[in-house]
Amino acid sequence: MNSWDAVFLARHGQTQWNLLRRRQGRLDSPLTPNGVVQAHRHASTLRNRGIDGIFVSPLGRALATARIISDALRLEIEVVDELAELDHGQFSGLIDEQIDTKFPGDRQRRAADKYQWRFPDGESYADADPRAARALQQIRRKPAKRPLIVSHEMIGRMLQRHLLGLEPHAALARSHPHDLVFEIDPATRECRDLEP
Question: Looking at the annotation, which residues are catalytic?
Answer without folding.
Answer: 12, 85
